[in-house]
Design a protein that fits this description.
This protein is mainly alpha-helical. It has 3 domains: about 20-215, Growth Hormone, Chain: A (Up-down Bundle), CATH 1.20.1250.20; about 215-265; about 275-504, Growth Hormone, Chain: A. The protein is built from 19 helices and no strands. It comes from Streptomyces davaonensis (strain DSM 101723 / JCM 4913 / KCC S-0913 / 768). It is found in: Cell membrane. GO terms for molecular function: transmembrane transporter activity. Pfam families: MFS_1 (PF07690).
Length: about 500
């Protein structure tokens, strides 16, 4: 008999066997649409950045924050978002997140200056961090049959994995045929449509045990990451050896060390250290973070190269990136899952990182006259191949042999590593690119025949410097991974989850 104390208000009885939601497949459509909105916003503004910068008049130093403010808020708050959804109820969290994301997007579209735009992007990240884990948990509670759940997660993963491509293409079409502001406004109608899904989600459900929030952990990890990203950004104007930059790096390191100390002592940690201390899982998180440095770096700088140097339109730029997701899809969704059960994970991941590094070094040979078909297109495909080999085992082994009570945290940690890696990588590579471009401009200004050609040459020097550093970071990551991840190949019958189900 279920007592009133065992029953969640407005929801199902705790401990009772959940009944299958008869409208679960309809609900899945709206859940996937909501998650797609979150994922495509990582890339949709990339194509619009040149027009954003021209319209709002912000500096090159600030343009990376348009990307970073979203990914940093998203990544650092993802784990807290899952706890909030458990506490408030998943349906309620779903609606709150959709409403907040839509309002933040409209605020960004109406932004008259860079300050409001960055605020809006950060707010998008905050509500995205609530929406992403809520979407995953809604699938779990609505699909109780294991076969149906596996199919649902497969559909969810496939749609989410295509989000980056959709973001690039949609960003190109909206920017070229409407205005860059529609790259923000477009989220509002998507959110409104997704909100209708609440009618099909079944009764409200909360976690059996009300979550406790690790507020000190959230404040420490977020502040530490912001300090490090800000240090990378300020190094462009202040110099790497300046007191401000060094102080920010030290502050960030101290805050992150304090975060680890708090987590070790907390009875309800945001990230139980046992999850990330495992060599296999820790290596997977590191590989995912390093991989995002490369992939988001390539997207960021190639956008400016194609539009400002090669003169591509926004739509042409979006289409130009298609070879990369083709490579990712072929190897992450096709080849990697077939090899994964037969070999140790580093036998796939290390070659994947080295292949991606070679593609970045290839891009580092670009000049203002390089051919798209001869240089950019094959390099993007090779980068996709490398990332495809890396992503599947990294996501899979991010939850390797984890306890049931830590499964959500481990899965969330993969996404967190992905977003944080992209945030720090974009900030770091932007500063290195700006430094190289400024130095080239100063060294060649005296003998320049055309200011326009000099400016393009300086930009290319900055972009290729960023690609070189990204390739070096990826290659070093491969060496570290080869030494650190000593996981043997899976034993016969060992379960391997769907790698794409956790992306985004």
């Amino acid at each position: 008999m279920t007592t009133s104390e065992d029953r969640v208000p407005g929801g199902t009885a705790v401990g009772a066997a959940p009944l299958a939601n008869p409208k679960r497949w309809t609900a899945l459509v709206f859940i996937c649409l909501a998650q797609l909105m979150v994922v495509l916003d990582i890339t949709i503004v990339n194509i619009a950045l040149p027009e954003m910068q021209a319209d709002l008049g912000f500096s090159n130093e600030n343009r990376q924050w348009v990307v970073t403010s979203y990914t940093l808020a998203f990544g650092s708050l993802l784990l807290l978002g899952g706890r909030i959804a458990d506490y408030t109820g998943r349906k309620r969290a779903f609606l709150i997140a959709l409403a907040g994301f839509a309002i933040a997007s409209c605020l960004g579209g109406a932004a008259p200056n860079i300050e409001m735009l960055l605020t809006a992007r950060a707010l998008q990240g905050v509500f995205g961090a609530l929406l992403a884990p809520t979407a995953l948990s809604l699938i779990s509670v609505n699909f109780t049959d294991q076969k149906e759940r596996a199919k649902a997660f497969s559909i969810f993963g496939s749609i989410v994995a295509s989000g980056a491509v959709i973001g690039l293409l949609l960003g190109g079409f909206l920017t070229e045929y409407l205005d860059w502001t529609w790259c923000m406004y477009v989220n509002a109608p998507i959110a409104v449509i997704a909100a209708f899904g609440v009618m099909y989600l079944g009764p409200e459900q909360r976690a059996a045990v009300r979550a406790r929030f690790d507020i000190p952990g959230v404040l420490l990890v977020t502040s530490g990451l912001v300090a490090i990203v800000y240090a990378c950004s300020e190094a462009e104007s202040e110099g790497w050896g300046s007191g401000l930059v060094l102080g920010l790096f030290v502050t960030g390191a101290v805050l992150l060390a304090a975060f680890l100390a708090v987590e070790a002592r907390s009875s309800h940690p945001l990230v139980p250290l046992r999850v990330i201390a495992d060599r296999t899982r820790g290596s997977a998180y590191l590989a995912m973070a390093v991989g995002m440095v490369a992939m988001l770096g390539a997207l960021f700088f190639l956008t400016f190269y194609l539009q400002l140097v090669k003169g591509y339109s926004p739509v042409e730029t979006g289409l130009a990136f298609l070879p990369m997701p083709v490579g990712v899809g072929m190897f992450a969704g096709g080849i990697s899952p077939k090899i994964l059960p037969k070999v140790p994970p580093r036998a796939i991941m290390v070659p994947g990182m080295l292949i991606a590094a070679s593609a970045l070094f290839w891009l580092a040979m670009l000049d203002a006259d390089s051919s798209y078909w001869g240089m950019v297109m094959p390099a993007l495909y090779v980068l996709g191949v490398g990332m495809g080999l890396l992503i599947a085992p990294a996501v899979n082994y991010g939850t390797y042999k984890v306890a049931d009570e830590d499964a959500g945290v481990a899965s969330g940690s993969v996404n967190t590593a992905q977003q944080i890696g992209g945030s720090i990588g974009t900030a770091l590579l932007s500063t290195l690119a700006a430094d190289a471009a400024a130095e080239y401009f100063a060294d060649h200004a005296a003998g320049a025949k055309s200011p326009e050609l000099l400016q393009k040459a300086a930009m290319v020097e900055g972009f290729t410097t960023a690609f070189t550093w990204a390739g070096a970071i990826m290659a070093c990551g491969a060496v570290v991974l080869a030494a650190l991840m000593n996981t043997p190949k899976p034993s016969p019958g060992e379960a391997q989850g769907s790698p794409m189900a956790h992306l985004g």
